[in-house]
UniProtKB/TrEMBL annotation:
Protein name: Beta-ketoacyl-[acyl-carrier-protein] synthase III
Pathway linked to the protein: Lipid metabolism; fatty acid biosynthesis
Domain Beta-ketoacyl-[acyl-carrier-protein] synthase III N-terminal stretches: 104-184
Organism: Actinophytocola xanthii
GO cellular component: cytoplasm
Keywords: Acyltransferase, Cytoplasm, Fatty acid biosynthesis, Fatty acid metabolism, Lipid biosynthesis, Lipid metabolism, Multifunctional enzyme, Transferase
Amino acid sequence: MAAVIAGLGGWLPPKIVTNDELCESLDSSDKWIRTRTGIQERRVVTAGLSTRDIAVEAGARALKSAGESTTDAVVVATTSADRLCPAVAPEVAHLLGLDTVAAFDITSACSGFLYGLATSAGLIAAGAAESVLFIGAEAFTTLVNPEDRNTRPIFGDGGGAVLLRAGRPGQLGSVGPIDLGSDGAKADLLAIPAGGSRQRAASGGLGFDAVPTEDWYLHMSGRALYTQAVERMTQSSRTALARAGWRVDDVDWFVGHQANARIVAAVAEELDLPAERVAVNIDKVGNTLAASIPLLLTDYAARGALRPGDRVLLAAFGAGLSWGATTMVWPKLAVDAFR
C-alpha cells in the first residue's frame, strides 16, 4: 500500500507587505533583506483571519483538485495554531463539512510537511484511512517580534494542502521512501520561549508581566541555523535518493523548504543540482513554515513548470531541530493558481 497525491491546493492571505513597506517601521532596507534572504514581499493575516481560516481555504482547494468532497482524516501541520488547546484540525474538518472524521495537529515547524506526509502515509499504510487531507497552514507572522529586523522580514503566512489516497507503490504521485531526523540538543537555536508549560503566562501567583515581552516571540540564531540547515537537508536528501534508488541526475526538480534563498542554493550546490532544476518562490511568499513545500508545489504545478512524470526531490529543515526528505514522480493534477 502506498499514499498517492490525488489533489493539491494552496491559499495566501490577500494582504501583501513589501520590503519597503516593512522597513517603514523597521531598521532595515529592501536591499539588505533581498541580499540576505531572497525575499521581496510576503502575505500576512489581517484582523479576522487565522491559521484555521487559511487551512480551510487550502484544504478546500486540495479537495476540489482531487474531485472529492470527503475524506477519512484531516491532519494539519502548524506551529501557529489558533490556540494552545484544542488542536485546530477538528475545527478545520468541521468547516470543510467533514464532521466526525479523525482530525489532529502535528507541530514540526518548517519540517512539518515532511513529518505530516509521513504521518498521513502511515495512516493509509496501516489501513486506518483510505484517504487523508493533509494541510500545512501558518499565520506565523503573529509570533514574530515586530521590532526584530532579523526575524520579521523572513516570515509570511499561507497554507498548502494535499489529498492523499491509497494506491500502489511506483504509481505516479506515490510518496517515496521518507527520511526524517531531529537533534533536540540544539532546540534553542530556533524557539519561542514563553507560552508553554516551561514558561507559562501565569505561574506561582506571577502574572503575565513576569514573562519578558520578547520571550513571547521567536528567537533565532541565524548563523548556526544556516550551517545546520545546509548540512541536514543535504544529508537527508542523499538518504532519500539512495532509498528510492535514484541518482542526483535523475532529479528534475528540487523542492526545498523556502527558509532562505541562500540555504536552498547551498543545498543544491552540495547535491550538484543545477539552478534550473531548483524550485524557488520565496521572493513572493517568504518563509511559510509547514505551508512552504505544498505552496511551492502548487505554484509550479499551476503554471505548468511541474509536469506529470517529473522526478521530484523534497527536503525541509526547521525548529526542533528537525529535518526530512522524500521523493516522488509527479502525477497529473488539476491545480488552480493561488495568486
